Amino acid sequence: MITINRINQFPIIAFLALGTILFHACKDREMRPGALLLDEQDLRSTFPSLAVASEGLDSRVAEICNGTDHVLPAFRLLYSDALQYPGFAERLCRSLLRDSRMPEALIHHTFAVLGAPAGGWGPPPAGIPEGAAVLPVMSQVERSMEDLDRELGFHFSGDDINEWRKLPVSIRATILEAFTGMVEAGHVLAQFTAPLQHLIRKAGFSGEDFPWDEILKPWNQKQLAEFEMLDLVGKADLRKLSFASRMIATHLNKFSLIDTGEVGEDFRSCIIETSMGRLGIFGKGRDTIRGSFYLSVDLGGDDLYMGPDDRNKGLKQTCALLADLGGDDTYDCSNGLLAHASMGIGMLMDFSGHDTYMSGRKGMVSACYGTALLYDFEGDDHYISEGRYSQGAAHVGVAILVDLAGDDRYCAGDYSQGYGGTLGLGLLLDAAGCDLYNVPKECVSSDHEASFIQGAARGRWAEATDGHSQGGGIGILIDGGGSDEYHAGSFSQGAGYFMGGGIFFDLQGDDTYRATSHSQGYAAHYALGICIDQSGHDRYNTDTDPLKITQIMGGGRDLSFGCFVDGAGDDHYHFGNRSAGIGDLNGIGLFWDRDGNDSYTWHKNHLNQGSASMGQTLDLAPGMESGMRLFYAPGGDKLGVFRDDHGMRLSTETYHIK
């Protein structure tokens, strides 16, 4: 069934009649988990009017009219031919899923989207045999402590030298090889941070302080009076950060090759002072690990990590890396930092166990001028973040949370779970398992439904305040399988706002979705948003307050493109006014259910009472011909498309506010 409307010429009766005709003409498509759902040429031929309307979006006009700086090159390309966006989003998500077991590949892919690829991620160049780098280290692993001190800045105190010698030669070789590579990466990282730290100190912050709240001010405050922190954005060479991050992720991942069975039970721990910071190696018992480390390696056991106090990080230590090889661990960083990157790199890899990750106001897996990575290989895990900017949230850099297996639970505040701010890409990738995302009964500490989460992006729109608008980033949530449950407030589940792009991709499973508004493939103010559910019998917003469901499932407002696609399954949809394929204020919205016997419940209410749903458009109000719309006819390109390819039942329910 299809509805396409530029000027509201199709009422519901005509739209149902047209659907009856098209129902017999549509060819059933079986959407297999491995099959591509969206093809650009297929979209152009299926929706020719959509192809025409999308050509009316021009990022140059949006940038000029809003005085916008730092727009992603990829966003410019996609926005100016928006029908590329669905296919691009699906191909990107499938590439990330395909390479989900290679951290260095994910680093490369995400920075490439930001226009800063470096280092590559394939095999070594021809002529360099695999494992060649470790051979010199193996032959010199028994070097004298004087050599280690001179070459790597190692300094042992107390009994640490004897603990170091208890470790098998192969493990010491792996540690030395990884550390040597990280030192090289550290030199590159220092060249990335040096100009940023210069401006930070010029603004009055010493090396002992870290102005986390200050550097986030441009995105936390609507109007600025001081602009030093905006100057930082132009000084960030993301290619240097990309290169350093790629090297560090490669070396950190090598700890997965360690055979902990070779470690004797008599090994306890070893703390080494190095030129880069403290190196901590911990045994297979139940350890409690506190304080700041450049690199921590835990060889097993159910451990408790208390984390560093962020007040002690300052501007000196730009790297914090952790590899845990086994055990059901608890990462309690309520008062500190966890896989957090501010002017640097923070990475955590946990290779096995049912783990609990907790963070406070500063969040986990968050990056601002840096790279943050949390990689969990297996287990039923719980991620709890009290604050916002968490679980894959980035400004000027990359933040990646990957969980490869298990039934996991995620709780976070606003701007989280795959969120991209200015020049940032945030990714949450859960490869398998039946997962819960911000489900209220699991997130008992939450007092509101978080917004800008689960594949969301946002720029800084300052046209009406200080004039220093900044482009948005890319926010991605990918779930590879399992019957999942997603809860969110506004601008979530594949949503973009002001020159940002949101992407939500669920590959398979019978999923449950809930969002209050402006979500599930929604974009506003020169933005892009897409929500894709590949397969499964899904339920959308069935338990949400019907008076609050509005502007969801494929809506584009104010020269934006929002797209919602469900590939297969018998689905149940609930929505309010101005939903399910809406073009609003020269925007473009697409709702497309490609297969299954589906039911639709339209909750009509007094909110936006004059706004229709299911493939409609809304005209400009008098006096709104300003800004970017001066370059377009007020009644020009806008398009709402609703299409169901195989079977639908429509019911409407009218609600009155007393």
Note the topology.
Elements: E1 2-5, H1 12-25, H2 40-46, H3 48-54, H4 59-66, E2 68-69, H5 73-79, H6 84-98, H7 103-113, H8 134-139, H9 145-152, H10 160-166, H11 169-202, H12 212-215, H13 217-220, H14 228-235, H15 238-253, E3 269-273, E4 278-282, E5 288-290, E6 295-298, E7 304-307, E8 319-324, E9 330-333, E10 341-350, E11 356-359, E12 366-376, E13 382-385, E14 393-403, E15 409-411, E16 419-420, E17 424-430, E18 436-437, E19 456-458, E20 469-470, E21 474-479, E22 485-490, E23 495-497, E24 501-506, E25 512-519, E26 522-524, E27 528-533, E28 539-540, E29 550-552, E30 555-557, E31 561-566, E32 572-575, E33 582-584, E34 588-593, E35 598-604, E36 616-618, E37 639-644, E38 648-654
Parallel strand pairs: 2-20, 4-6, 5-7, 6-8, 7-9, 8-10, 9-11, 10-12, 11-13, 12-14, 13-15, 14-16, 14-17, 15-18, 16-19, 17-21, 18-22, 19-23, 21-24, 22-25, 23-26, 24-27, 25-28, 25-29, 26-30, 27-31, 28-32, 30-33, 31-34, 32-35, 33-36, 34-37, 35-38
Antiparallel strand pairs: 1-37, 3-4
Describe this structure in words.
The protein is of the alpha/beta class and about 650 residues long. The protein is about 25% helix and about 30% strand. It is built from 15 helices and 38 strands. The strands form three sheets. It has a 22-stranded mixed beta sheet that branches. Strands 5, 7, 9, 11, 13, 15, 18, 22, 25, 28, 29, 32, 35 and 38 form a 14-stranded parallel beta sheet that branches. A two-stranded parallel ribbon has the order 2-20. Helix 2 (about 40-45) packs across helix 3 (about 50-55). The longest helix has about 35 residues, at about 170-200. The chain starts with a strand and ends with a strand. The relative contact order is 0.12. Mean pLDDT is about 85; it is low at about 5-30 and about 125-140.
